[in-house]
Design brief:
By secondary structure, the protein is α+β, with helices and mostly antiparallel strands. It has three domains: 84 residues; 114 residues, PDZ domain (Pdz3 Domain), CATH 2.30.42; 181 residues, Alpha-Beta Complex (2-enoyl-CoA Hydratase, Chain A, domain 1), CATH 3.90.226. The chain has 15 helices and 25 strands. Helix 1 packs antiparallel against helix 3 and helix 12 runs parallel beside helix 13. The longest helix is centred in the N-terminal third of the chain and has 18 residues.
């Protein structure tokens, strides 16, 4: 009934792309929601695949696949290596961004683009750029015009327009090692703009790592402990949830079931009589929606609707609501939703969820559930990722590349798609927005880049306000 992954690995690049496009167009969960124009996409990218095949250019082939999948604006859609051959091609492609200019660019509340961090002794510092300098022109163009031309082929997916802007800022200051760029800037307190020629140097992709908005599993793999908790000064409970899955038996670490770890944390908070609870879902990689609903039962006093899971049925060719088996994924009951049932032990005080754009999939559901509480708030610089579909579909392509995508979507009680990004009057929105948005001031951004947890600080202030 549910779509199954396909193997097009033995076909030509162009033939495999045609098959991929046909399967993706039929089974992708958000064609209408995101207004995907499939004929336009094929007309744009099929010739590029054909040219790469004619030239036997593996890097061009890989980058074209990436640009094609990025058009779907979905954190669950991407190109991954499934072989050493594919990884070698990716490594060659990544050389396009291996050089850095020794600065992190950020857009502040007032819309200005500044150097939020400058590496001591780096190219930007040697050129006279100081932290806080306003970037006026790059490569001879006004800064916003330069950003609009940044190639994001190597960036993570950007479901929202705000995330796309940040990815452009990240890759603006990346290039091949040895590349020269001219920047026009004005340091704080200075009236006269300066001009500097910067040369990109190898830096182990430092600024990309500093600004990486991908989830825990993507960056670090399986954690040793999925849920960690403590009681902070002021008698505030803090629990961090990295994903909504149990640690596999063959992975070293704490194999206590994830749901039990979360409930143990809540039990400790109740016993301690904490004044409030912080649930940190930043960089949460997602997992089981059923587990999310079960976790939320520790915070909900009333039975509440969580979601309908809407799947593509290959037999009927229709989208249908089914409850599925948590272990096998097999459909069980038609038109059955997931509910949050009040738990035997609950914490009923104020709750703040810390969110970021690296919180994806089921992790976004935990943030959504907390935000819906009468005594719940979300806090962060940015909202969650905006990629809430059910993954499992995909295809293997020549060269050992795997393209995956969601074949199910989450619906609210009114049977409308929830959380996944979509365009509204040309601007892409999605995810769980912060109720308390941490302002993008130079101080906040610079302190975050230096390792200070500014979002937690704001969360604790909001929690104290809620407790009064």
């Amino acid at each position: 009934m549910l779509p199954e992954p396909a193997d097009f690995g033995e076909m030509s690049w162009a033939g495999a792309f045609a098959e991929l496009h046909t399967k993706l167009q039929r089974e992708y969960a958000f064609t209408g929601w995101k207004r995907i124009d499939w004929p336009r996409l094929y007309a744009r990218y099929a010739p590029r695949i054909a040219r790469a095949q004619w030239a036997a250019d593996e890097v061009a082939y890989y980058l074209t696949l990436r640009r094609y999948t990025l058009e779907l604006r979905d954190g669950h859609v991407g190109v991954q290596p499934a072989s050493e051959e594919a990884q070698a091609v990716i490594d060659r492609a990544s050389a396009r961004a291996a050089g850095g200019f020794g600065l992190v660019a950020a857009r502040l509340e007032n819309g200005r683009v500044v150097a939020a961090w400058v590496k001591p002794g780096g190219p930007a510092a040697r050129g006279g750029v100081k932290t806080g300098a306003r970037l006026l022109r790059w490569r001879g163009r006004p800064i916003d015009a330069a950003l609009a031309r940044v190639d994001t082929a190597l960036s993570p997916t950007y479901p929202t327009s705000a995330r796309l802007d940040r990815e452009r800022l990240r890759f603006l200051v990346r290039a091949r090692v040895g590349t020269r760029r001219i920047v026009v800037f004005r340091n704080r307190g200075e009236r006269i703009a300066r001009r500097a020629r910067l040369t990109a140097v190898a830096d182990d992709r430092l600024t990309l790592a500093m600004t990486d908005e991908r989830s825990t599993m993507v960056i670090d793999g399986w954690p040793e402990k999925v849920v960690t908790s403590e009681i902070l000064p002021g008698n505030v409970g803090y629990v961090r949830v990295r994903l909504e899955l149990d640690l596999p038996a063959d992975v070293p670490g704490d194999h206590t079931p994830t749901l039990e770890q979360f409930r143990q944390a809540v039990h400790a908070f109740v016993q301690a009589g904490v004044s409030g609870v912080v649930v940190d879902v930043r960089r949460n990689s997602g997992g089981s929606d059923g587990m999310v609903a079960a976790m939320l039962s520790s915070l909900y006093a009333r039975r509440s609707f969580y979601e309908y899971a809407d799947w593509y049925n290959t037999v009927t060719g229709l989208w249908e609501i089914w409850d599925t088996d948590e272990e096998t994924g097999e459909p069980l009951t038609r038109d059955q939703g997931i509910w949050i049932e009040p738990g035997e032990e609950r914490y009923d005080g104020p709750v703040v969820a810390l969110v970021d754009n690296a919180c994806v999939s089921s992790g976004e559901g935990l943030a959504m559930g907390i935000r819906r509480l009468d005594n719940g708030k979300t806090v962060g610089f940015h909202g969650t990722n905006g990629s809430f579909g059910m993954v499992g579909d995909g295809a293997l392509l020549p060269g050992g590349f795997w393209v995956g995508w969601p074949f199910g979507r989450s619906l609210n009680a009114g049977k409308v798609v929830q959380l996944d990004s979509r365009p509204i009057r040309g601007v892409w929105h999605g995810g769980v927005a912060p109720d308390v948005r941490v302002p993008m001031t130079l101080r906040n951004v610079s302190r975050t880049l230096r390792g200070h947890d500014v979002v937690l600080e704001y969360g604790l202030v909001e929690l104290a306000r809620m407790a009064d």
